[in-house]
Amino acid sequence: MGPCIARIAINRIEDVRASKRKYVIDRAKRILVEMFDENILETEEITEEIKQSVRVEEITHLGKDSLPAGPNVLDSDAILVVEGRADVLNLLKYGIKNAVAVGGTNVPPTIADLCAKKVVTAFTDGDRGGELIIKELLQVADIDFVARAPEGKSVEDMTQKEIVRALRQKIPVEQVLDLYKIKSQPKKRRDLTTKRKSLIREKPLCIKNAAERAEAIAPRRIVPREVMPRAVPGATQEVEEIPIPATAPQPVHEPEREWFRQHVDELDGTLSARLMDRNHNVLREVAVRDLARELKESNGDVNGIIFDGVVTQRILDIAAEKGLEYIIGAKLGNIAKSPVCVRVLTKEA
Which range of residues forms the domain containing residue 116? Predict the structure, then answer.
C-alpha cells in the first residue's frame, strides 16, 4: 500500500500506573478474603492434632496376627477387648491404653491367651456385629465382664462420657451366659482359669452350700460359764452333778427361707431387683443393671436385696458399706472377699 492520509484524535489521557495500582489492590483484597474464609487451626486444635499423632504412634501390634493394641496391654492386669483398630484409637484418645482389637468375628489365638491370664472386659458396638463377637468370645475365650455401646452406636464414635458410662454399666459374664443361653465352661477348665487369674486377684472364698455360707458368716455364740461355789475351809460339801442336755444342731436359717421364696419365684427371669426394708416389705423394684447405683444412693432404709442376677464382688462391697444384712441372688459369682456382716443366699443353694 502506498502513502495515505491519516487523522489522529486524542479522546482521553489516562495514567496507566493508577490502573495497575487499582488491579493490585483488588487482587490483594481477594487474597485476604480467601485466606480468612479458609479454616485456620487454633491453638487448641493444633494441640489436639499433635496429641492425636502421638497416640497413633503409641499404638502397638500383638502376636502373629499383628492385632492393634494400646501400649499397656501386656503390663496391665485388666484389659478391654474391642472390635477394630478405630476403637483402640478412640480409647487412646481419652487415655485408655489397655485395649486390644479382635479384628473381626473370628477370635485369634492371641486374644484367647490374653484372656486366660488377665481380667477381661469385652467392649463392643451396639449392633448385631458386636453381639456376634460377644458370643464368639464366650465360646473360645475366658472373659469376665461385658460392656456394650449404646444401641446403634460404635465404640469409635463414643465420647469420653459415654465410654465411662458404658464401662461402669458392665455386667458379669454369668448374666450374659444366661441371656444368650450359652453353656458355661467345663468345671475343670474353669478351675484352671480361676487358678491362673488368682495371681491377679485375691484367692476367692469358696463355700459350697448355703448352710456352710451361713455357718461361716454367722456370729459366734457365747456360752456363759457356770460359777462354781467357793469351797469353805473345814466344811464338807456334796457336789451334785447336773446333767447338761445335749442340744442338737439347729438348721441354719431354714425358717427364714420361706418369706423370700415368693419374691425369688416372682423375680425369676425378669432381671429385676427388689430392695427390702427391715420388715421384709418391698421399698422399690429396679433393673439389675441399676442396682449398684440405687444402693449407692440409698439413705439407710434398705435392709436387704433380692434380685434375679449374679452376686458379684461389687454388689457385696456396696452392701457392706451401706450396712445391708442380706443379699439373695440367683447365683454366686467369683467372690474374692466375703464381708462377715452380710449374709449371702442363692436360689441354687
Answer: 47-197
Same domain for 107 and 159: yes
Cα torsion at 337, 340, 346, 349 (round to 10°)?
A: 100
Overall domain count for the chain: 2
pLDDT the model gives residue 27: 92
Averaged over 240-256, what is the pLDDT? 45
Q: Are 69 and 92 in contact (CB under 8 A)?
A: no
Q: Cα separations (Å) of 117 from 96, 113, 142, 195?
A: 20, 7, 9, 10
- Neighbour order of strands in the sheet with 145-148: 60-62, 67-69, 99-101, 78-82, 119-124, 145-148, 171-172
As a whole number, mean pLDDT of residues 327-345 equals: 83
Looking at the domain assignment, is residue 7 inside a domain? no
Residue 227's pLDDT band (cuts 50, 70, 90): very low
149 and 212 co-located in one domain: no
C-alpha dist (Å) from residue 154 to 88, 192, 300: 12, 34, 39
pLDDT at residue 210 is higher than 70? no
Specify the residue for cell string 458379669.
172
Contact 315, 293 (CB under 8 A): no
Are the C-beta atoms of residues 287 and 272 closer than 8 Å to each other?
A: yes
